[in-house]
Amino acid sequence: MPPVALRWERREPPLPPVAVLAVGDAVPRLARAARERVRAGARLAVLADDGPGLPAADRALLLLGAEPDLPWADGARYLGQDAGLLTPTAARPAPAAALWRRALGAAEGGICVLVPGRVLVADRPPVPLDSPEALDPVAGPTAGVPGGGADGGPVDGDPVDGGLADGAR
Predict the structure, then answer these.
(1) Greater pLDDT, 107 or 145
(2) What predicted TM-score, i.e. pTM, was given to this entire model?
(3) What residues contact 45, with CB distance under 8 A and at least 6 apart?
């Protein structure tokens, strides 16, 4: 069978948001916004790809939750659920999302994200975000940021690391 090219089509109406994704420079901004939402009572789950030695441009932070609980930050994307695949709320992959999920090898019940230029497949479920401080390792420097942590730098054994594997670098 010949390879099939991924195309993106406009989705109307947009999917309801169930997650928000930040990549690269947007990761610390989204982590700081999520800390504030959790402090305000939001219930979120998190997956992060922020391991030691990973270039900043390849780092990713995925937050899942109810639409009113989801934070926002410049450079982040809201995602909706389409046949078990998280995609941008206003875009539809073609061919169908179910075919892409299967082609990407996502396990049943696992997290699979497809956005233009990036594929993320989680090998374990998202971690409930019980403490805003759990985001400190991915929030980056917080000097001068209200409610910021100590130094916010990454640490080995990051408790937020949800095991995302980036398949489209």
Answers:
(1) 107
(2) 0.81
(3) 63, 64, 65, 125, 126, 127, 128, 129
